[in-house]
């Protein structure tokens, strides 16, 4: 299946209100009825145990469970203001679980990463560079799922890594992995990308190192 295409929404001065943000994200959604319970490792000084996400869904149903094509938004149960969105998934479902082709993002793909530094801001900025210094880096997975986990051909990207190939039980099983060196965030701001092969879930010998130019600053080289 081809990758999904999302048309980015343009906002005046690259800002929108919290009300606008919530209207876009949760329009037509129903909370907590049609998809499986999803745990999270989120913790605060007062909250040490694992919690589950609040989940919101809209799409096709069968026997009161997500079945066919649908969209799920996951939000932390703890109060985090607009930054509580953890996942946006759009794709295929079976019996309330992600099954078939689907894409998951750590932001709403029609809005993009937003300024999450203030949970109480009335205006939300979308004019962010994908840099680790302002906590605005992004991640996604585009590929196939089975029983709610990444299984099959896919591509995963985060600030530090990119993996592409065959996934099994959420991990890269066979394919190519690229690791972004933390040296990039040193005072010299020069880093490397180490390229590895994966076979049967194990990382094999390094293929090569790719040196990055100073002009990259502290931006991830994996952003698309």
Description:
This protein is mostly beta strands and 224 residues long. It has two domains: 1-153, no CATH class; 160-218, no CATH class. Helix content is 4%, strand content 46%. It is built from one helix and 15 strands; from the N terminus they run E-H-E-E-E-E-E-E-E-E-E-E-E-E-E-E. The chain has one helix at 18-26; strands at residues 15-17, 30-31, 39-40, 51-52, 54-62, 65-75, 85-94, 97-105, 123-125, 140-146, 149-157, 161-168, 171-180, 192-199, 202-211. It has an eleven-stranded antiparallel β-sheet, with no helix packed on it. Strand 5 and strand 6 (65-75) form a beta hairpin. The longest helix has 9 residues, at 18-26. It is globular, with a radius of gyration of 19 Å. The protein starts with 14 loop residues before the first strand and ends in a 13-residue tail after the last strand. Mean pLDDT is 78; it is low at 130-136 and 183-187.
């Amino acid at each position: 299946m081809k990758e999904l295409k999302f048309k980015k929404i343009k906002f005046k001065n690259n800002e929108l209100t919290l009300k606008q943000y919530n209207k876009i994200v949760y329009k037509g959604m129903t909370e907590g009825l049609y998809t499986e319970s999803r745990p999270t490792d989120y913790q605060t000084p007062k909250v040490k145990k694992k919690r589950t996400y609040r989940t919101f869904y809209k799409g096709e149903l069968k026997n009161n469970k997500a079945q066919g094509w649908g969209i799920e938004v996951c939000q932390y149960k703890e109060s985090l203001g607009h930054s509580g969105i953890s996942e946006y998934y759009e794709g295929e479902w079976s019996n309330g679980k992600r099954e078939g082709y689907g894409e998951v993002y750590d932001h709403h793909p029609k809005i993009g990463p937003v300024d999450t530094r203030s949970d109480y801001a009335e205006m939300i900025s979308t004019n962010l560079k994908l840099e680790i210094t302002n906590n605005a880096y992004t991640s996604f997975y585009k590929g196939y799922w089975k029983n709610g986990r990444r299984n099959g051909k896919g591509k995963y990207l985060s600030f530090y890594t990119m993996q592409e190939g065959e996934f099994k039980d959420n991990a890269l099983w066979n394919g190519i992995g690229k690791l972004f060196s933390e040296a990039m965030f040193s005072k010299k701001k020069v880093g490397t990308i180490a390229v590895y092969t994966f076979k049967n879930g194990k990382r094999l010998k390094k293929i090569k190192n790719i040196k990055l130019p100073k002009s990259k600053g502290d931006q991830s080289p994996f952003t698309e």
